[in-house]
């Protein structure tokens, strides 16, 4: 098995390795998963669909805030998803001047299919590693994330807004609590 040995004084090699890891996860796991699933869904669209799945119906402003996007960008994103039949807009019952955006059944099915395929790809990659290397990877990733979370603003920006899916083991929840003394509100 190929192994790269890194000296602690070589941060550039570590940075390069981290870049490879990010690209591997993004390109192989996310981008290829979308194309393997025969989907014409982009990464941004998938993030929007996942947000709606976690949080249910919401306004465009809430969606823009949750995805850290501008309102005009959200409008264009939602327009594309409406045309694909993955989300729908309807007047909000409490404010007819505002619309509510929610997943359609097709949108729900698309998110689930992509999530299953993405999990399969992760499992395939992990199966090529020894159990010890899998454990080391998890420990290392948790340690790296924890070390990088030194500002409550960074923690909030990275938060996936998992809502009910959040777990007590979430490194962001732990880091936020340590940094501020308060719990992170997972909306």
TrEMBL record:
<keyword id="KW-0804">Transcription</keyword>
<dbReference type="InterPro" id="IPR011991">
    <property type="entry name" value="ArsR-like_HTH"/>
</dbReference>
<dbReference type="InterPro" id="IPR039422">
    <property type="entry name" value="MarR/SlyA-like"/>
</dbReference>
<dbReference type="Pfam" id="PF01047">
    <property type="entry name" value="MarR"/>
</dbReference>
<dbReference type="InterPro" id="IPR036388">
    <property type="entry name" value="WH-like_DNA-bd_sf"/>
</dbReference>
<feature type="domain" description="HTH marR-type">
    <location>
        <begin position="1"/>
        <end position="146"/>
    </location>
</feature>
<dbReference type="InterPro" id="IPR036390">
    <property type="entry name" value="WH_DNA-bd_sf"/>
</dbReference>
<keyword id="KW-0805">Transcription regulation</keyword>
<protein>
    <submittedName>
        <fullName>MarR family transcriptional regulator</fullName>
    </submittedName>
</protein>
<dbReference type="InterPro" id="IPR000835">
    <property type="entry name" value="HTH_MarR-typ"/>
</dbReference>
<dbReference type="InterPro" id="IPR023187">
    <property type="entry name" value="Tscrpt_reg_MarR-type_CS"/>
</dbReference>
<keyword id="KW-0238">DNA-binding</keyword>
């Amino acid at each position: 098995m190929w192994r790269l040995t890194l000296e602690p004084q070589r941060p550039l090699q570590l940075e390069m390795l981290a870049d490879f890891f990010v690209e591997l996860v993004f390109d192989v796991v996310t981008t290829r998963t979308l194309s393997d699933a025969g989907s014409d869904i982009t990464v941004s669209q998938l993030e929007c669909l996942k947000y709606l799945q976690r949080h249910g119906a919401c306004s465009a402003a809430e969606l823009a805030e949750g995805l850290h996007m501008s309102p005009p960008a959200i409008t264009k994103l939602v327009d594309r998803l409406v045309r694909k039949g993955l989300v729908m807009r309807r007047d909000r019952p409490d404010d007819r001047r505002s619309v509510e955006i929610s997943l359609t059944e097709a949108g729900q099915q698309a998110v689930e299919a992509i999530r299953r395929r993405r999990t399969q790809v992760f499992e395939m990659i992990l199966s090529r590693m020894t159990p010890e290397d899998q454990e080391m990877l998890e420990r290392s990733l948790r340690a790296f994330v924890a070390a990088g979370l030194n500002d409550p603003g960074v923690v909030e920006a990275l938060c996936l807004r998992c809502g009910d899916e959040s777990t007590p083991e979430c490194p962001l929840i732990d880091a936020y609590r340590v940094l501020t003394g308060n719990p992170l509100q997972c909306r």
